[in-house]
Every structure is written in structure tokens, then in C-alpha cells.
From TrEMBL, chains A, B:
Pfam families for the chain: LOB
Domain LOB: 30-131
GO terms classed as biological process: regulation of DNA-templated transcription
Protein name in UniProt: LOB domain-containing protein
InterPro entries referenced in this protein's UniProt entry, alphabetically: LOB
Record organism: Vitis vinifera
A molecular-function term among this protein's GO annotations: DNA-binding transcription activator activity
A Gene Ontology term for the protein's cellular component: nucleus
Region (Disordered): 1-24
Family: Belongs to the LOB domain-containing protein family.
Length: 162, 162
């Protein structure tokens, strides 16, 4: 569990200043958007700070409204650091979609895309079938041209010698 | 606000049994999945009961893990009754996708579908272009066949009379 609530952690740290004791989280000058909105002290160990900079408060407001801060923190903590930025981005995206469409959210978008995909597959199959027919007809026409061209040459040859 | 917490509502209701006083929520025999998991008394006024029957506890467990019970309740309450079932279904769907893909969730599915759609559109455009070319070639071949067929008839006519 990497996330530590800075408002409570201090009281659990032993007062002896042994060099082996874990260092206390240091408060940052400019709190992240999450800590500012949740009215918490933001520290250098804040698990949300890298993904919710103070310059973009709306991202956290929307993600918090849809998923809740504790669920966002839990999701982030359950992932390796290399995947966290993508996870937060996808949660912000989903939250935005849910705000725009509170009934269907991303599920609605997925359903619409599936329908479009299905329509396109039908159209592609029909076009491919039409192409196959036209290519078959072209093959037959080619054979007719070769035959007629050959007959023409033969007739010309015949009329020349008769 | 239709949802009332049955554990606290009782204390706020006036004790006088006036006919104008709102009736107390009645506890149900079989609590819904949400109330059972949240260890709350389920009543006939439970806003989640119609969408989380006791027979399907996993739907609530997953939706609660991703969105949180309070956010689900808020989302449901903000919608007219006719849209609530769809909203809960879409939240259960999204929560399931997020559990399967904790990094990208539905956003990942949408991105994949967009890519498939784009690939299909490219394939359809290429097939349509190929069809247009083949149809043009077929037109030219048709004209050649008419011309050669005509010449053949003329040659046959000529050789017959000469």
C-alpha cells in the first residue's frame, strides 16, 4: 500500500529519530488537484499527485464524481507504476463519457461502435461479393474478346486467300 | 432524493402517528444484494433493490468495487425511473470491463473498436476502388465485344458474297 494519508500518518511514526525509521512525508508547496479538492495536505508521497496536477482540477472533479477518490486511489495502488498514468487517463476518459451520457456511458459508445462495425462488415461483404461477380463476368468477356478477335483474323485471312 | 438510509431514517421521523405524516419504510423479508453486502436494513423504499436482486450479488460487488455504492446511488437518483435500469446495467457492464482490464477498461475497448472501424473503412474504400476499376474495364470489354462481333458478322457477309 503506497498511499499514506498524510493527516494521520504522522501520529503513527515513532518519535525516536533513528536513522532506520522511515522518513516522514514532506508537504509540497503546491498541492495536487486531488488533495486540493479533497482538502487534504499533499505530500511528496501522494499517490495521485503525478496524475492530477494542480493545473487540471476538472479531471479529478469528474473522475471523483464517477468513481470516487478512494476507488481511484485503490485502482492506482493495485497497478505497477508504469501502468498508472494510462489507468488514470482511461478513468478520466470514462468519467467524461459518463458525464455526457449518464444512462449508457462508455457502454453506449461501445454498443454504437459495434453497430457501426457490423454495418461496415455487411457493406464490405456486399462490395466483395459484387467485385467477385464483376471479375467473373470480366473473365468471360476476356475469353469472348480473344475468341472473336481470333475469328476475325481467321475470316480476314480466309477472305484474303479465297 | 428518493434513497433513504433505513438505519438512520427512523430517528428523524416524528413519533406522532398523524395521517399526514409520511409512512415509515417497511423492512423487506429478503434484502437486495446491495443492502446485504453493505450490511444495511433493506426496505421497500430501497433505491437499489429493483436493480440488484438478492439472486445476483456479484453484479453489485463488482459495480461497488469500481464505482462505489454512494456513486451508484447518486447516479440512480439523478435519473428518471424509466432510465435507471439501463444506467445500472451499463455501470455493471463497465465495471466488469474494468475488472478484466484494470488499466484501460472501456476506454481500451473503445480504442480497439475505433481501430477496427478505421481498418474496415480502409478495406471497404480499397474494395470499392477496385470494383470501380473492374467495372470500367468491363465497360471497355463490352464495347470491344460489340465491335468485334459486328466486324465478324461483316466479314462473314463479305466472304459469303465475294
Amino acid at each position: 500500500m503506497e498511499y499514506t494519508d498524510p493527516t494521520t500518518t504522522g501520529s503513527t511514526i515513532p518519535s525516536s529519530s533513528s536513522s532506520l525509521a522511515p522518513s516522514l512525508p514532506t508537504a509540497v508547496q503546491r498541492p495536487c488537484a486531488a488533495c486540493k479538492i479533497l482538502r487534504r495536505r499533499c505530500t511528496d508521497r501522494c499517490v495521485l499527485a503525478p496524475y492530477f496536477p494542480p493545473t487540471e482540477p476538472f479531471n479529478f472533479i469528474i473522475a471523483h464524481r464517477v468513481f470516487g477518490a478512494s476507488n481511484i486511489i485503490k485502482s492506482v495502488q493495485d497497478l505497477p507504476e508504469s501502468r498508472r498514468a494510462d489507468a488514470v487517463s482511461s478513468m478520466i476518459y470514462e468519467a467524461n463519457v459518463r458525464m455526457c451520457d449518464p444512462v449508457y456511458g462508455c457502454a453506449g459508445a461501445i454498443s454504437q461502435l459495434h453497430k457501426q462495425l457490423c454495418d461496415l462488415q455487411t457493406e464490405l461483404a456486399a462490395t466483395q461479393a459484387e467485385l467477385a461477380i464483376v471479375q467473373c463476368q470480366q473473365q468471360q468477356l476476356n475469353e469472348s474478346v480473344i475468341f472473336l478477335d481470333g475469328s476475325n483474323s481467321a475470316s480476314a485471312w480466309e477472305s484474303h486467300w479465297n
